[in-house]
Specification:
This protein has 300 residues and is mainly α. The chain has helices at residues 3-29, 52-63, 67-79, 81-97, 136-153, 155-167, 169-192, 194-214, 222-276, 279-295. The longest helix is centred in the C-terminal third of the chain and has 55 residues, at 222-276.
């Protein structure tokens, strides 16, 4: 992977995270009736959100000192998120296009001509350390960790991503996040709740088998239709069992968290109760510590 491609990929990850976050916020705000047969969760693998400071930093880095463009982007972000996303995509295409070397042309990341200098700490395009979690290192590490996990658990999906990366790099990041939303929850759960991760794996495999069988239903007749019906009945029954197991595991996890919080509340309550009668003693001891510190000062 060339230096310029890494730069382009990291910038695109940041852009897609912004775009995806704006899109899913609307879905998160809506109250939806639960469907136990739902094939996924809208809360899976949500891209990390940018703080207002990080968003400002990103826009400033994208505009590269063009105040009119900064004002335009900020206005679009407030008035029309869809137009803002489209404008960001257009700017990304312009930045990644490059151009022939000429007078005044500066060399960008990875030796690419025509893309301008990357300012240290100026945003996802910068080459220096940044505030918060949007560093190049973190984005690349998250990307690489997921690809490695995918190769070990879903090699066909990993292969398709690699083909997209080589043949259609402009669409790669969108394809990456689509994959991350589908499989990422399983990866995230493997460390926190391995049993639940295994249940999700089996459920996903059943859904894929179901979809494959359903494609043959239209033309099925007689004994073939009976066979398909029996297969689907078995799959649906097993999926119901897995749904119950998932809900039980999530309930147990929630119960543990509540118990932990209750323990913390009890400890805090005990500490407050203990402190309430110690003001006089604690104040005297603190004054003594302060005086002892002052006496140790050497003026030489």
């Amino acid at each position: 992977m060339t230096g310029f491609y890494k730069y382009r990929m990291l910038m695109a990850i940041a852009v897609v995270a912004i775009v995806a976050t704006m899109s899913v916020n609307i879905c998160y705000a809506e109250e939806m009736k639960e469907d136990i047969w739902q094939d996924g969760s809208p809360r899976q693998s949500r891209p990390p959100e940018m703080t207002p400071e990080q968003m400002k930093e990103f826009i400033d880095g994208l505009a590269k000192g063009d105040k009119a463009l900064v004002d335009k982007l900020n206005k679009l972000r407030e008035d029309s998120p869809e137009k803002f996303r489209e404008e960001v995509r257009n700017l990304m295409r312009q930045k990644s296009g490059g151009g022939p070397k000429g007078p005044g042309t500066q060399q960008g990341p990875g030796g690419r001509e025509g893309s301008g200098p990357a300012r240290k700490g100026s945003g996802p395009a910068g080459d220096g350390p940044r505030r918060g979690g949007w560093s190049h290192e973190r984005m690349k590490a998250e990307h690489d960790a997921y690809i490695k996990w995918l190769e070990e658990n879903y090699p066909k999906e990993a292969k398709q991503l690699e083909i997209t990366r080589k043949d259609d790099p402009d669409n790669y990041i969108r394809r990456f996040w689509s994959s991350r939303r589908k499989y990422g929850q399983i990866m995230d759960l493997e460390k926190r709740n391995p049993e639940l991760a295994e249940v999700l794996k089996e459920d996903m495999a059943l859904q894929q088998s179901r979809d494959k069988i359903l494609k043959t239903v239209r033309d099925a007749k007689g004994k073939q239709l009976e066979k398909i019906t029996a297969q689907l009945k078995k799959i649906v029954g097993r999926r119901f069992d897995l749904i119950v197991i998932k809900k039980r595991l999530k309930y147990e996890e929630l119960k543990k968290r509540i118990e932990h919080l209750q323990k913390e509340v009890a400890e805090q309550e005990a500490e407050l109760s203990k402190l309430n009668g110690q003001k006089k003693t604690q104040t005297a001891e603190r004054l003594k510590e302060l005086f002892n510190t002052a006496e140790k000062i050497t003026w030489q």
